[in-house]
Specification:
Blueprint lengths: L4 H11 L3 H5 L1 H5 L8 H4 L13 H18 L3 E5 L2 H7 L11 E5 L5 E5 L3 H8 L4 E5 L5 H11 L6 E4 L5 H10 L4 E4 L1 H8 L4 H22 L8 H14 L3 E9 L20 E10 L2 E2 L2 E6 L5 H20 L6 H13 L19
Length: 358
């Protein structure tokens, strides 16, 4: 699975081998509750009522994709393991050198390709009576892909390649079916995924509730002399105890809170330090991403001034985020508040190294 920025930062932190991180390993696994700070130890799972995306909703997603394929004159989609494959089918599969994926034709049934020795496991995950074409180690998976398309009458025309499809898989298919025109599938996949259903919104809300609740608990553990890795450990443990999956966090104290994605430099919390905590988790594949900034101890007048300015910019962004508004107009509304206070312009430092959302 590809690493996002928080998981990469967490992995890097582990590699540098700080004593604080080693000492907190039991907290991350939750193996020894007695070592946990009380705000973390008292947490209980809150994801028990999360409702899974139903098979019927996934079928509706496929039908919506077919509508968009008709509008874009795309005869089929080719998907590998990743977010879109999970979105349409509910199947998760790790990427390897052996291609595994699905073809979603505009008309006709879906069909899968799978390494021969993985067939039993694949059928467990795919379920039902789905068509699964297996290839052995001395055979070409790309020939199978081309055969699926050919058997559905797709020998010419446009085939959508999903953004996560690896180049060597695309190149293999192109060699087997050179008469096809290969186009970007984003108008279909993004066209479906950008608009969330009530069930998706509910899962997103739960993952965000987990993260916010964990953040409150983790920030309650702040103490003089703790390292940024102590805070990361508390945050990840809190999310896990609340039922969040794949938790990730990064933290920065004092001057290092100006690093949007943290710093490897050893840090110890001191009175008056700004504390940055960026974190998230997933609930059934739906991910949160929340950053909170506070001050350890009593904030200075300047810290309060800048915090309030940031809040005004955020309020301006929410006010501008109306139906039909463009993303850049929302960013411009927030940016105008901050630049009018003397920061900037544009992305110049000191100023606005980020865009709205951060």
């Amino acid at each position: 699975m590809p690493l996002d920025r928080r998981h990469f930062t967490g992995l890097l932190a582990g590699l540098i081998g700080t004593a604080a991180l080693r000492q907190s390993s039991s907290r991350v696994t939750g193996e020894d509750d007695c070592d946990l700070p009380e705000p973390i130890r008292s947490l209980r799972p809150i994801t028990g009522n999360a409702k899974s995306i139903t098979a019927a909703e996934r079928e509706q997603r496929v039908e919506r994709a077919r509508q968009l394929m008709s509008e874009q004159d795309i005869a089929a989609l080719v998907l590998e393991s990743g977010t879109s494959l999970y979105y349409y089918t509910g199947v998760r599969w790790g990427l390897s050198e052996r291609p595994f994926g699905v073809v979603i034709p505009r008309t006709g049934s879906l069909a899968w390709i799978c390494p021969g020795f993985e067939e039993a496991r694949a059928r467990e995950r795919i379920g039902g009576a789905a068509e699964v074409r297996v290839w052995q180690e001395d055979e070409s998976p790309y020939r199978l892909l081309a055969g699926i398309l050919r058997d559905r009458g797709i020998t010419t025309g446009r085939v959508g390649i999903e953004e996560r499809l690896r180049f060597f898989v695309f190149e293999g298919l192109r060699r087997e079916a050179p008469a096809l025109e290969y186009v970007c599938a984003d108008p279909v996949t993004a066209g479906c995924r950008m608009i969330k259903s009530p069930a998706e919104l509910a899962l997103l809300q739960i993952s965000n509730t987990v993260t916010i609740t964990a953040c409150r608990a983790a920030l309650a553990t702040l103490r003089e002399g703790m390292t940024q890795y102590d805070l990361v450990s508390s945050m990840e443990t809190a999310m896990r105890r609340l039922g969040g999956e794949d938790p990730g966090a990064l933290a920065g104290f004092g001057e290092y809170s100006a690093f949007p994605h943290g710093s490897e430099q050893p840090q110890k919390l001191r009175d008056g330090d700004i504390v940055l905590l960026d974190s998230g988790c997933t609930v059934q594949g739906y991910e949160s991403d929340i950053t909170r900034t506070t001050v350890f101890g009593k904030p200075s007048a300047r810290q309060i001034q800048v915090w309030n300015l940031e809040r005004k910019a955020q309020d301006a962004a929410f006010a501008a985020a109306t139906v039909g508004a463009t993303c850049d107009s929302v960013d411009a509304a927030a940016r105008a508040v901050i630049t009018s206070a003397g920061f900037g312009p544009d992305y110049k430092v000191p100023g606005l190294p980020h865009r709205t959302g951060h």
